Every structure is written in C-alpha cells, then in structure tokens.
Amino acid sequence: MAILSEIRGPQDVKRLTSEECKELAVELRQTIIDTVSRQGGHLASNLGDVELTIALHRAFDSPTDKLIFDVGHQIYAHKLLTGRQERFGTLRSYGGISGFPCRAESEHDLFDTGHSSTAISMALGLARARDLQGENYHVVAVVGDGALTGGMCYEAMNDAGNGKNRLIVVLNDNEMSIDRNVGALSNYFKHLRASASWYGGKKRVKRGLERIPLVGKTLARWAESAKNMVKSVVTGGEMFEALGFRYLGPFDGHDIDEMTHIFEEAKQVDDMPLLIHVVTQKGHGYDLAERQPEKFHGVAPFRVENGLRREQSGKESAAHAAGSALVAMAAEDKRVCAITAAMAAGTGLDEFATYYPERFFDVGIAEQHAVSMAAGLARAGMRPYFAVYATFFQRAYDQMIHDVCLQNLPVCVLSDHAGLVGDDGKTHHGVLSVPMLLSLPNLTLLAPRDTQELRAAVRASLAVEGPCVIQYPKEGIEPYAQALGGEGFAVGRWQRLLEGEERVLLAYGRMTQHALRAAEMMREQGVKVGVIDCCSLRPMDMTCLRRLMAKRAKIVTVEEGEMIGGFGAEIARQCALHGAPPPVAMLGTPNRFIAHGSVELLLRECALMPDQIARRAMEAFGGETAAKGGAEAQAKPEETHER
Ligand SMILES: Cc1ncc(C[n+]2csc(CCOP(=O)(O)OP(=O)(O)O)c2C)c(N)n1
C-alpha cells in the first residue's frame, strides 16, 4: 500500500498525480475487500464509489467544505482517506470503528447516519446556516439512485431549488438499490444515461454549460478543451431542472480526473443548486460483486476467492421463517399481499416475489408510502403485510398512527431486526420499537420468542381484524427447550414456560430464552422462579397478570429494548392501576444510543445475558436462596384481555 499508507488526510490526496490517484484507487479497493472479507460490512457500494470519493477529496477541502454521504454505508474510502487507516481493521467490531459516518471518529463525518434519503435536507440546512453566518464553504451531498427513491429527497430539492441555495448534489447512479433499483425514476435515470449518450456531441455539452449564469462560459470553455469530452455530456435532466437544479451529466464515476474537473468547475457556481449525475458500477473491481452486486451489498465475513461465507450459521433466519409463513398463507388466501421498501431479500420476501409477483410490491426506499399504500390495499379488502426492519419502520410512525390505526385497518407489519442488531450499530438497533408502538390505539403487538412461534404468530395475524405488528430479532432463534411447551401461540395469551408465581420473570421475544436460562441458574441455587413468555404485548394477557398481582408475585420484567415507555413500564402502570406492588426490577436496554459489536457483547454491555439477568433478578427478589416456591394460590381464571 505504497500510496495509501502515506495518506494522513485529504491534503495528501491533493498532492497526488493522476497516475498516483489511479494507483490509490487500486489500493483502497484491496484494503476494503480484505477488511470486509474479515469483518463483514457493505462491500459492493464501497467498491463502487472509490474514484468518486478520491475526486471529492481532491476537489473539495473537507472538513471546511462539508461532504455528506447519504445513508453512509458507502464511506469506507472516505474513512481511509481521512485518517482512519490504522483503525480500519477494527471495522464494525465492538470498540472498533463504525461502518457508518461517526462524529466521534472524525471531524470529516458531519452526522452519524444509517438511514436513507436525508442527506440533501441536511446539506441544505448547512448551506443555509453558512449563508446566514456569512461563511463561504461548499456543501456537497452524495446520494445514490436507490436513496433517491425516498420522498424526503424531493422535499429537500423542492425547497432548495426554490430558494436558489448554493448546494451541490452528486447523484451516484449505479442502477442498484440493494437489489436492482425500482420505480419510474429508475427508468428516468436509464433514459438520461441513454439519451445523453456517453458519446454525445460537444455542442450539446457546450450549450448546456453556457446556460449556467456567470460561470457557464468558463465551464463551456473547459468542457471544449477537456480531454474526456466524449464522455462528459450535459443534457436532459428536465426533472431536476424543474425542481430548480442545474443538471450536469452523466459523467463516468470511475474517471477521477473527469470528476475532479467537474467538481472544480461546479465550485464556481454560486447562485443555484447543482445536480451532478455520475454513473458508477456497484462492486467495481471485484468480479464476484460486479456480477452479483445484490449479494455483496451487505455481507458477513467471506472468502475472497469464492465469495462464500466463512461461517455458515445453519440456522433458519427469522426473516425466512416469516416470509415462508406468508407464502403459505398467500396460497390459501388471495387477499394476502407483501410489500417491501427496497429490501425484498433482507426481509425474507424474495420467495413471495417469485411465487406471487402480482401481489408483491417493492416500493423503493419509501417506508412512509409503503404503510399508507398498505392502508389503501386494506381499505379495499386486501390483507397487506409490510416486512421492514424495525429501525426503518420508525420513519412511518405517523402513517401507522394516522392512516392505519386511526382507521383500524388490517395492515400487518413484520418488524424484523427488532432489538439489538449488532455490527450495524446505533442507527440500526430496533430498541425503540415497543415504546413507539405500545400506546397506539387499536394495535395488536406481538413479539414471539422463536422462529416456530413466529410462524404461528404470522398465521394468527390473519385473524386479527385490525392493525398488527409482529416483531422479531435479526437472528433466527431456535426453540429453547420444546419440552417446556407453553400453551401455544395465541393473540392475547401469555405462555407459562416455567412454573412458579411467587417470583416470576416476565419476558418477550429473544429475552424469553435468556429468562429461561436465568431461571434455571437461580433454581440451581435453590430459588424457584417462574418464567412467562409475554409474546402478546398488546393486548396483554390480563388474566395472567391479574393472577400474578393477586398473589403479590415478585415480578422482574426483561426486555431487549428501551425501558422508558416499554413493556416493564406498562406492567408497572397496570400494577399501579390495580393497587398491586410494581415489579421489583425492570431490565432492558439503557436510554442511550448503543454502538456496534456482536449482539452477544452488546447484550452483555446491557447486562441482559442469562447470568446477568439471574444475578440482578436474585438481588431484586431479595437474595433468598432457600425459597422453594412456597404456597402459590390457585389461579382465578378471568376472561378479559385488556388492551
Ligand atoms: C430508511 C431506510 N430504509 C432502508 C435502508 C436500507 N438500505 C441501506 S442502503 C440501501 C440501498 C441504497 O441504494 P443507493 O442509495 O443507490 O446506494 P448504493 O448502495 O447502490 O451505492 C438500502 C435500501 C436504509 N438504510 N434506510
């Protein structure tokens, strides 16, 4: 890494010759492939924007100039060029550097991000602040064609174009979101690429450039003389122009010199926002990723020679369990539809898409639209299932409240990646899910404990005549001990997995398994502790809860999520309403943004591993060691399930 190892910051990139920049690109790619093959991460996107990132750092002066990468999953080259080479090998590991932009890591990262389609808005805010403060730096938002399917981009462009703000948006068009990009706009970009023709004539370019006020002539002169003229054409882009942007492109996003020139010239434009369209290839430079970019978007550690995972998990993923249950339901019920926001494979809907393409909708990165569109489907009698990661579902909160819950429509959200997700870190954990949803009128909220129960929950949701959310973690969870049984999944029913009602652990989802292990540990110390799987978070099983309250049970709640407004808080509220003592302890994730690392290490950090639960529960129960269950009153069956 002769060149890369000499780069301490962007100032060193500026000193390189064209040839050295090309060599730098090779070294960056090699470093990215080596590291991601060991650590996992976003590979194909990061291979695609290596030259673009070099050109940005050549032309602009970060951190004085502000570079914002939308989503932020594609900033590995940026990290390597901004002083983070030495730590790059720790990518995404516990205590190591993040896979996303991170302010704590570098002054070159403006925001901690991981969610799509926000960069233009943030950039516009920065640009406005700059103008108000009389400063003079450049603001550049780099946005993928996938991210540009998110509606916020258009809200931002509509605003920026009208205000004539000085702002540069670089559209990094690789024709891919995670899968092939979808929607009318992706066809429009195709049209721009084709109609502009990479080999368009000089005159068209010159005309386009000349239309830019003040500096247009300079640009045009540069373009006329530019060596790469055949590739740098300016045409079309009417849609962006209608939004008040000057459109430039498309340009070859792997040609460092060409992009550097364009960016240098773009810096001269100070009275309107620019959209610079560059075309890149996702996975560029790694044959396997070029051929199957969707498979190499986000990867677990893999072998470079064949692309295969270093470790096969062998476990069925939760997404697959939910997706296959849905396929079976669709076979029997023609009302069942599936919706994804650009994540068909990630959410286990790929099988559905194959079998029922007419009832499958990939709406692009548009979670808000997905939920409201589902409301429309449901209003007309269909049964839509929107599979989405819990963290991205946050974006559609109001749509869920206003368009679904208020109308009491049978829209079901399969909320994947709930709880801690591990390596992707703070932008991706789904720990706010329960507090966000528990209070929504009309909503049924289910959190099954393993993949078997998940299938049962998905099946049961078809009988729910109103909004429903089923949440489950990223990893598939195998049944812990089938012998423990439980009464079987039913909406509104909790399942007693371990007898014992004097002291009891109430848990849901993955934490049910941890509670069982913790209870066994406590039993080994002679303390009988019951475990109840509270898989139906709303409606709660009030029969069960009232029985516990009547017995003055010592309750410890265990949840893999935020506790403020969470499950434990709701149990405490119910106890207060019924004049019963509150839980003796509530265990959950702390009220802060939790960084990245393996799920196990993160759960340990949150003191939610079985041994930690056992210790904390034991303390809360009063540390008794001799109790063996005591006299437990007979259950008084009550039928009501309160919401
Ligand atoms: C709100 C939201 N929904 C979904 C995702 C998951 N996601 C991460 S990257 C990505 C595709 C982005 O495509 P594009 O912007 O074209 O970038 P590329 O990876 O192709 O370079 C998606 C859907 C996300 N980060 N944020």
Overall CATH architecture of the largest domain: 3-Layer(aba) Sandwich
**How much of the residues is beta strand, in percent?**
5-15%
Ligand inventory reads: thiamine diphosphate
The Cα radius of gyration reads 27 Å
Outline the fold blueprint:
Blueprint: H1 10-14, H2 18-39, E1 41-42, H3 44-48, H4 50-59, E2 66-69, H5 76-81, H6 119-132, E3 139-144, H7 152-163, E4 167-173, H8 184-196, H9 202-210, H10 216-225, H11 238-242, E5 246-252, H12 256-266, E6 273-279, H13 287-291, E7 298-299, H14 318-332, E8 336-340, H15 350-355, E9 360-362, H16 367-379, E10 383-389, H17 390-393, H18 397-405, E11 412-416, H19 433-437, E12 444-446, H20 451-461, E13 468-471, E14 495-498, E15 503-507, H21 510-524, E16 530-533, E17 536-538, H22 542-550, E18 554-562, H23 567-577, E19 585-589, H24 599-605, H25 610-621
Parallel strand pairs: 2-3, 3-4, 4-6, 5-6, 8-9, 8-10, 10-11, 11-13, 12-13, 15-16, 15-18, 18-19
Antiparallel strand pairs: 1-7, 12-17, 14-16
Helix pairs in contact: 4-12, 6-7, 9-10, 14-20, 16-18, 21-25
Bound molecules: thiamine diphosphate.
Describe this structure in words.
There is one protein chain. This protein is of the alpha/beta class and 643 residues long. The protein folds into 3 domains: 4-299, Thiamin diphosphate (ThDP)-binding fold, Pyr/PP domains (Rossmann fold, 3-Layer(aba) Sandwich); 318-471, 3-Layer(aba) Sandwich (Rossmann fold); 493-621, 3-Layer(aba) Sandwich (Rossmann fold). Helix content is 38%, strand content 14%. The protein has 25 helices and 19 strands. The strands form 4 sheets. A 7-stranded mixed β-sheet has the order 9-8-10-11-13-12-17, sandwiched between helices. A 5-stranded parallel β-sheet has the order 2-3-4-6-5, sandwiched between helices. Helix 4 (50-59) packs across helix 12 (256-266). The longest helix is centred in the first third of the chain and has 22 residues, at 18-39. Residues 197-204, 226-233 and 624-643 have low confidence and may be disordered. The structure holds thiamine diphosphate. Thiamine diphosphate binds next to helix 3.
